[in-house]
Design a protein that fits this description.
It contains nine helices and 31 strands. The N and C termini lie far apart (154 Å). The strands form eight sheets. Strands 3-8-7-6-5 form a five-stranded antiparallel beta sheet, with no helix packed on it. The longest helix has 22 residues. It comes from Kalanchoe fedtschenkoi (Lavender scallops).
C-alpha cells in the first residue's frame, strides 16, 4: 500500500514521462541489512574518551592495571602530590632504598667524609658535597672566614693551640696590655698557674723547661735493691749469650770407616730377626755409662738397632755401639742446657735433638755436624720428622707455648702452626698412614689433626682424664698406648672415632709425676713401661696381666726401648745416668 501511495503521490507532482505508463513498475528502494549482531558502543566511546583524558594525567603508582599505552614521559614522571615520609605508598618501592626514600650513592672517601663531618660539628661549616667545581661551603660563613677554611685535620692540635696563644699575645701587644715582671706581657697569676694558656706559652720549649736544678735525691733502700736486681739480670742475660755452646762433636771409635770403606754407622748386611716371636728379658747383659747426669731418652737405630742414641741432662747426646764393642762411638755437643728429646730420620743418617736451651738441632749422625738449627724462643718438648720418605724435610715440634710448629728444613721457614692446645705439648704420634697425627698436652686432652691442616678433627677430653706425657703406636698401627699419670696405660683406637678401649687397661706401676716411656715388643704381644721407682714392667697385650718386672735403675726408669731385630732384648735408661741392656 505504501508503494501505491508513493506512486500516486509521485504522479501528482508533475507531468508524467512520455515513456511512462500506468502499467510500468516503480523503482523499489529496500533498507540495508547486516548479519553482524547489534552492539552497543556507548561504553566503548566512554572508555576512549576517558583514555584521551587520562593521557594528560600522571599515573597512580598504586595502580596495577593501565588500560592504554602510556608514554615514556608519563612512566618516568615524578610522583605528584604530597606524601607522608613514613607512609608505605609515599614513594614507589622500586625507587626506595631507605626508609625515608631514595638515597643516591656518592663517590666519596671515608676519610674525606669524616673530615668534613667533624669540621662541621666543631666549626659549623663544611665543604658542599653537591658542588661540582670549586670550593663551596655550607654552614657558618663567619667561622669559615675566621678560621681561613681550615678543617680539623689540617693542623695538629698542638699547632692549633700554639697559633691561638700567639694570636692572643699579639692582640695583647697591639692593645697595649700592661707590662709585668720580665716584660712578657703576662699576668703573674696566670704565669704561675699550669692550667692557663699563659703558662703553656711561657713553658713551651720543653716539658722540663724551668724545672729546679740541683742534686738528685738519694734512692730509697727498696729502689736500690730493685736497681741491683735489674743490673744482675742484665748481666746474666749477657752471660747466657756469651756462653753459647759451639756445635762440635767427638768421635771415640778406632776409625770412621773400615777396610772396605763402610761407615761406622752402616748396619751389618746379615742383620735379620733372631726369633720369630718376642721373649721377655730376664738378665742384664750390658751397661753403658758416660753421661754425668740423668738420661732423658734413648732411641735405637731404625730397622737394625746396631746403634743406640741417648739424650742426657748433661747437655750431651751420645751414640753407642750395640752389636760389637758396646762403647760410645760419638758425642754430640751443641746444647747449653739439658736435652729433652731425640728422633732419628728414617734411614738413621740424621737425627734431631731438642733442648731446654730452646733450640732444635738437626745433626749428621756420621760426621757429627749440625745441618740446621731451629728456634721459636720457646722450649721444645717433643720433635718428630714426618715418617713419609718423601717428607723427611718436614719437622714437627711440640712447644711449651701450647703450639705445634711445622718447619720445612730445606728453607728453614715455618710452614704451619697448630695452635689449639691449652697447655704445653708433650707428644706427637703419626697414625693412619701418616695422614694424621695425635698430640697430647698438659691440658689433659688428646687432639687429632690432619697433617698440614691446623684444625682439630677429633678432640678427646673427659673429666676423669689425666695428662698423658708418653704415647706409643702398636706395631699393627691400629692402637695407641697412652701413659696416663693416674698410674695406668690407656689404649685408644686409631680408627675414625679414636675411641677408648675400655677392655684394655694396664696398671700396677707408679708413674705419677714422671713422663715414663711406654712401648711395644716388635710383634705386639707385650707392652712395657718404666716407672718412678726404677722398675721396668711387662704386660701381656691380650690378657692385660703383668708378666714380669725388672729392677733396672736406682732412680726413675724414664725410657724403655725394645730392640727391633733381637726380639728378646730391651734397653732401659734412667735418671741415674745409666743405659742398661737386658736379655
Amino acid at each position: 500500500m505504501d508503494l501505491i501511495q508513493s506512486y500516486s503521490d509521485g504522479g501528482s507532482d508533475g507531468p508524467q514521462s512520455p515513456h511512462s505508463s500506468p502499467d510500468s513498475s516503480p523503482i523499489r528502494i529496500l533498507p540495508a541489512k547486516s548479519s553482524a549482531p547489534q552492539v552497543d558502543d556507548t561504553m566503548l566511546a566512554l572508555t576512549v574518551a576517558q583514555s584521551n583524558l587520562a593521557r594528560n594525567k600522571p599515573i597512580d603508582p598504586v595502580q596495577h592495571l593501565v588500560s592504554y599505552n602510556p608514554t615514556y614521559d608519563q612512566l618516568w614522571a615524578p610522583i605528584q602530590g604530597p606524601a607522608h615520609p613514613y607512609a608505605k605508598d609515599g614513594i614507589a618501592q622500586g625507587m626506595r632504598n631507605h626508609k625515608l626514600g631514595f638515597v643516591e650513592d656518592a663517590a666519596i672517601e671515608s676519610f674525606v667524609f669524616d673530615e668534613q663531618y667533624n669540621t662541621f660539628h666543631k666549626y659549623g661549616y663544611a665543604a658542599d658535597p653537591s658542588a661540582s667545581t670549586g670550593f663551596n661551603y655550607v654552614g657558618d660563613i663567619d667561622a669559615l672566614q675566621k678560621n681561613d677554611a681550615l678543617s680539623v685535620y689540617n693542623i695538629p692540635q698542638q699547632e692549633q693551640k700554639r697559633r691561638r696563644l700567639e694570636k692572643k699575645r699579639k692582640e695583647q701587644e697591639e692593645g697595649g696590655g700592661a707590662e709585668v715582671e720580665g716584660g712578657d706581657g703576662f699576668d703573674p697569676a696566670e704565669v704561675d698557674n699550669p692550667a692557663t694558656d699563659s703558662w703553656l706559652l711561657k713553658n713551651k720549649k720543653s716539658p722540663w723547661y724551668g724545672r729546679k736544678e740541683g742534686p738528685q735525691p738519694e734512692l730509697t733502700e727498696e729502689q736500690k735493691k730493685y736497681a741491683e736486681e735489674h743490673a744482675k739480670k742484665k748481666e746474666e742475660k749477657g752471660a747466657e749469650k756469651a756462653d753459647a755452646v759451639p756445635d762440635r762433636s767427638t768421635f771415640h771409635g778406632k776409625e770412621e770407616k773400615d777396610y772396605q770403606g763402610r761407615s761406622w754407622i752402616a748396619p751389618p748386611k746379615d742383620a735379620k730377626p733372631a726369633n720369630d716371636r718376642s721373649y721377655i728379658p730376664k738378665r742384664l747383659v750390658h751397661t753403658w755409662s758416660g753421661h754425668t747426669k740423668g738420661v732423658s731418652a734413648i732411641r735405637f737405630f731404625p730397622k737394625y738397632g746396631n746403634l743406640i742414641l741417648s739424650a742426657g741432662m748433661d747437655t750431651k747426646v751420645k751414640i753407642w755401639d750395640v752389636f760389637n764393642t758396646g762403647k760410645c762411638m760419638r758425642t754430640y755437643m751443641g746444647h747449653s742446657m739439658a736435652v729433652r728429646d731425640i728422633s732419628f730420620s728414617n734411614d738413621g743418617t740424621k737425627f734431631l735433638s731438642a733442648g731446654y736451651d730452646k733450640k732444635i738441632k738437626y745433626w749428621d749422625t756420621e760426621t757429627g755436624q749440625v745441618i740446621s738449627t731451629f728456634s721459636t724462643g720457646k722450649i721444645p718438648y717433643v720433635v718428630k720428622l714426618n715418617p713419609d720418605d718423601d717428607k723427611q724435610n718436614i719437622l714437627l715440634a711440640g712447644m711449651s707455648d701450647k703450639k705445634i710448629v711445622q718447619w720445612d728444613m730445606n728453607t728453614g721457614q715455618i710452614t704451619q702452626e697448630y695452635d689449639q692446645h691449652l697447655g704445653a705439648v708433650n707428644t706427637i704420634t703419626f697414625v693412619d698412614n701418616n695422614r694424621r697425627f695425635v698430640t697430647s698436652s698438659d691440658d689433659k686432652s688428646l687432639r687429632v689433626w690432619e697433617f698440614g691442616i691446623p684444625v682439630v678433627i677429633k678432640y678427646i677430653s673427659e673429666p676423669h682424664m689425666h695428662s698423658m706425657p708418653a704415647i706409643s703406636l702398636h706395631p699393627n698401627s691400629n692402637w695407641l698406648a697412652a701413659q696416663s699419670l693416674d698410674n695406668q696405660i690407656l689404649i685408644y683406637s686409631t680408627r675414625e672415632r679414636f675411641q677408648l678401649n675400655k677392655k684394655k687397661r694396664f696398671a700396677g706401676h707408679i708413674v705419677a709425676g714422671y713422663a715414663c716411656q711406654v712401648n711395644f715388643s716388635p710383634d705386639g704381644k707385650y707392652v712395657l713401661s718404666g716407672d718412678g721407682e726404677g722398675r721396668c714392667w711387662f704386660w701381656d697385650w691380650k690378657t692385660c696381666k703383668v708378666h714380669r718386672t725388672l729392677k733396672c735403675h736406682d732412680g726413675v726408669c724414664i725410657g724403655v726401648e725394645w730392640h727391633p731385630l733381637e726380639q728378646s732384648k730391651v734397653a732401659t735408661c734412667g735418671w741415674d745416668g745409666l743405659i742398661k741392656y737386658w736379655d
